[in-house]
Predict the structure.
Amino acid sequence: MNCAEVEKHLSEYLDNETASDMRQQIAEHLEVCESCRKKLAELQSLSFSLSSLAEDLPEDFHFSVTEQLSKQKTMPDKVIPLRKRAWFKMASVAACLVICLGAVGVIVNHGGSVYQEAQENSAAPQSAEYILDKTIGSDEAAVDEQAYGSQNMASEDAAANDISGESADEARDNAVNDIDSTADAADAAEELSASEAEWGYGTILLVVGIIALIFIIAIVLLHHKKKSKI
Amino acid sequence: MFIQTVCDKIMYTQNLSQYITFEDMIMVANNIPPPENELIQRAKSGDEAAFTALVEAYSKRIFNIGLRMLGSREDAADMTQDALLKIYRYLDSFRGDAAFSTWVYRISVNCCRDYLRIAYRSRELPFSDFAEDDDNGSAFEVADRSAIPEDVYLSGEGRDYLIALISQLAPKYRIIVVLREICGLSYQEIADTVDISIGTVKSRLSRARMALVQKITADREQYSHLGSLIECNEDERRRSDELC
């Protein structure tokens, strides 16, 4: 063992708390190392000096269970009240902040969606016309194409000309219906996403804040019933 | 008188269907207090006198833990009162799994920790718990000399200086030094009391002792009388030679 290793274990060697094989190694090192012997002597002397610091109980010290129990009933508790603790204050502030943020979030989202809705309503006729024109245009093209296809298919059967005309009409109606249903689905999706945005982050923050507040109130209530730790 | 007392004891133990041993007879004859277990049982059943006798042996050590950890005799006396009252209150929960002494010291150290925590909080200082694993950093909380007043350096044989020096140790090192050097607890008892491993007890005690020796060695250059704190007298030199 070198001096650094011995120095690390000198304290436990002094207290006779080293394992026997290590004790042997340290003893062998101490026989040949003057510096480590000096350190051991210093530790021993320090230990002796420290042990002399023990003092007697004060002369007026007297312990009586009955006296102490009656004294505790009349004296205020030394434990710092929960409401004065730093972490409690911080938690309360954080909970209030989260609730405020949540409320602001809900208001902003809700107000925003109302404004957006109003804007959409005002722009609705124009866009409806535009969509209608576009739909009809594409509708006619689709129907013509479909009818052309049908006509080609029907050209092999000359007797089917009238029927192909009827089927073209049916196809046109179907296409218009399909486009209407697609537009309805798109409207529904927009409404859904708008409601998600409305009740999204703001609501989550609000709920988290309320849960935090409930948690703090529960801690306060439990704290009064909790027995002091041994 | 002696025979009468022994006969009374025998009758008492026979009534309880117990055996009387030779040690019991010696105890009665020499007026030795009843063993700790008996006192514990009596105290559990509400015998205040038995409780007073039970904790009498521990009061001084508890007071010294408080004195060196808190630094004031008044606080130490209050802490001792609180600890003894807690021991009385929770005596029913003592099952005998650990030694009674360890249980008593554990309650006292916890009580001391509560007092320290309040003191640190009032000074707005961070308090690191005794059982914290992190042993990095210096064993001394205050590294500079200015923390100890000049008159402490100059007083007597260095006793006040040593007390001031211990108070500069971080609480988790100080408690180990106090339990070992002043209360004389074994490493296992300290580990059980503070709720840390024996390895941690060894390393903390070693670091604290080395830090104290280093500080005294540095201060000895200016105040030569402090050297007596770490210099061997004849008895110590002989004991040191025996160790080697």
